[in-house]
Amino acid sequence: MQLRRVVVTGLGVVTDIGHDVPSMWASMIEGRSGIGPISYFEQGEEWGVRFAGEVRDWDPTKVIDVRESKRMDRFCLLGLAAAIEAAADCGYDFNAGDPYRRGVAIGSGVGGIETIETHHLKLLQTGPRKVSPFVVPRLMVNACAGNVSIRFNLRGANIATATACATGSHSIGAAYHLIQRGDADLMFAGGAEGAVTPICVSAFNAMRALSTRNDDPQRASRPFDRDRDGFVLAEGAAVLILEDLEHAKARGAKIYAELVGFGSSGDAIHIAAPDEQGMGAAKAMEFAMRDAQINPEEVGYINAHGTSTPLGDAAEVAAIKGVFGAHASKLSVSSTKSVTGHTLGAAGGIESVATILAIQREVLPPTINLDNPDEGFNLDFVPNQAKPKRVDYGINNSFGFGGHNTSMVFARFTG
Known about the structure:
alpha/beta; two-stranded antiparallel ribbon; 13 helices
């Protein structure tokens, strides 16, 4: 079967460093951190972690009806807003054509956790008769995908992945495959997360997964630095419009980049720790490059998973060195989580946008707070300053609890 080519024709984001693509990209290139003290709930000294990447001063009712917004969890609002920006950006008329040729693949790592926490407390305080009938439609992991399909009359494939921090990438990969094999012409794809909540902060902290640098939040996310002590929890969303190349060309769409490869693997070792040698991560990158039919020497940039955890960063560096050999010292690797924090199921989408714009605009976003690379971390991590560089192929890595590993290869669009 002849597989169809898949291009990116629309982008949308809501993040702690910008509420749309232009503002996020400007902050990312300038290395402006979105991390700060938690404002969503009160914390005393007993809380080991008191900072996160909140999307501040954001009003979803600018693009979503007030009554409609009250029936959605925060993760869904973030995702729907990102989808609205992406839809406008792609310039497609969603009232025309066959709606069964258009679909959505938007997932979340934990879904409506804010709704679960809030309404469980209400249940305990007021009893079962006071539980809202909107609780289930709010908390579903697939709620964002469903609401995006309703907003844009998408009657084709409608799916939601949930693979922890690889969710956004798995969604994009699923959409890519649907278009490649001719099951859809256009897909909304990405991830959304609104998990800066008491349970999530306390539970990740109990796992010793989070940075505890409470006295210096903006310098807490420091991927690949020897003083890194964990990731910084954040919220956000990103949605890409993926489209069959011929479909995009026929309507004269602008094209940001081409998605040419997707690879995934499983560690099958531990539910919450990576393979220390990075074997699964390496296989995901190898599979993605095989799918793209390119050699490692053709890759110029990797947007790393780079969470700022001691084990995760070491495993990813080992994987990159193993896959790329001598070429590892020639390519550039940066972690944009250093400015955004870790948005869990949204990370794959947000970092895909960063990878696409890095290729298109020929400038690589920096890894901020990288003062002293850890021992043996002798790669070009684009430390602290953006770097002008033309690359033709860029990889976005996303890995998740459960042993999920994904890699995607984006290419400069050349017609």
